[in-house]
Specification:
Number of strands: 11
CATH superfamily: NAD(P)-binding Rossmann-like Domain
Order of helices and strands: EHEHEHEHEHEEHEEHEHEHH
Strand order of the largest sheet: 3-2-1-4-5-6-10
Number of helices: 10
Helix content: 40-55%
CATH topology: Rossmann fold
Shape: globular
Structural class: alpha/beta
Largest sheet: 7 strands, parallel
CATH architecture: 3-Layer(aba) Sandwich
Strand content: 15-25%
Length: 322
């Protein structure tokens, strides 16, 4: 199977490329940025075939269409996104809208010219915004109410691409991701702030103490699970008329993560201090996302709980350091 991963140099994109190559697929990775050094070194050694690592600006419709026409993939997974946090000046808001709204639409247009090509566009739990705090679980009954430029753009992108795919008869699914962390995660220009779990892990590995301003909990999902969930959708190639959710079905807190780190990294110390402005925070207390929409379509269930995810992530990061 040949799969085009757009956003293939990003955090989740690299996890997906690695997963597909590990099982023997042919992969084209496309991104505005090149593959990071570790990926450029390690990925070609996997059983599958990394056919190309192409440069692509997803706001360029002609370039997107030409890339798809050249490689003729069996499936496209569109992950490219801008995730600005904090203050978002007008120029950054414009770029965020271009990438997060036009990008998915260009993916639909390119897929429409290749009959039989299955398209997956990823979105985010951020679309729920203010609606994410009043329900015990976020499912199709909860109407999104995004409150940030990122959330608004992702919601607009998923709605516009769903409509465009229906008009163009493109087999298509939107998948909202919960709070992703894990392998390949790093701060980039498109994703300037890493997850609190990564920041805590980096502090522990560096021999530094940590302070928690609050500790969640959140429905954190490991990047390897996200890659497996997206692959399950590519494999079944079943279209979905409404957004699906890719979430773990469990929650844990930053305190739980710190306790696990302290068991595995001698000397790591942490404490709660709600008054510390530099303390780590789970950022928002939205409800967890449901898992049944994707499970009903593909049978996927997340496999990594906190303990397994932590062991795998630490081994992966220590291998890079060594």
């Amino acid at each position: 199977m040949s799969v085009l991963v757009v956003g293939g140099s990003g955090f989740v994109g690299l996890a997906l490329v690695e997963h597909l190559l590990a099982r023997g697929d042919t992969v084209i990775a496309a991104d505005l940025d090149p593959l990071p050094p570790r990926a450029a070194r390690d990925l070609p050694a996997l059983p599958g075939r990394l056919l190309a690592a192409e440069r692509l600006d997803v706001t360029d419709a002609a370039a997107y269409a030409a890339l798809v026409a050249r490689h003729r993939p069996r499936a496209i997974v569109h992950l490219a996104a801008m995730t600005p946090l904090g203050r978002v000046p007008p120029a950054l808001a414009c770029r965020t809208a271009q990438v997060n709204i036009l990008g998915p639409l260009h993916a639909v247009a390119a897929a429409a010219a290749l009959p039989g090509c299955f398209l997956v566009v990823t979105s985010s739990g951020a679309v729920f915004g203010g609606a994410g705090f009043d329900a015990p679980v976020l499912d199709a009954s909860i109407r999104p109410d995004p409150r940030t430029p990122y959330g608004v753009a992702k919601f607009a992108g998923e709605r516009m691409s769903l409509l465009a795919a229906a008009e163009g008869d493109v087999p298509f699914a939107v998948v909202r991701l919960s709070s992703v962390f894990g392998r390949w995660e790093r701060a980039t220009g498109a994703r300037p702030i890493a997850s609190p779990l990564l920041r805590l892990t980096e502090r522990a590995l560096a021999g530094q103490a940590a302070v928690l301003a609050d500790d969640g909990p959140r429905d954190f999902i490991y990047s390897v699970d996200v890659a497996a969930g997206l692959t399950s959708l590519v494999d079944t190639a079943k279209a979905a008329a409404q957004p699906l959710h890719l979430a773990p079905g469990t929650t844990w807190s930053l305190a739980d993560w710190c306790a696990g780190l302290a068991q595995r990294i001698p000397g790591f110390a942490w404490k709660h201090d709600p008054a510390d402005p530099q303390g780590e925070s789970a950022s928002n207390g939205r409800a967890p996302m449901e898992t049944e929409s994707l499970a009903a379509l593909t049978g996927f269930r997340a496999a990594y709980d906190l303990e397994r995810a932590m062991d795998d992530d630490l081994a992966w990061r220590r291998a890079a350091a060594g």
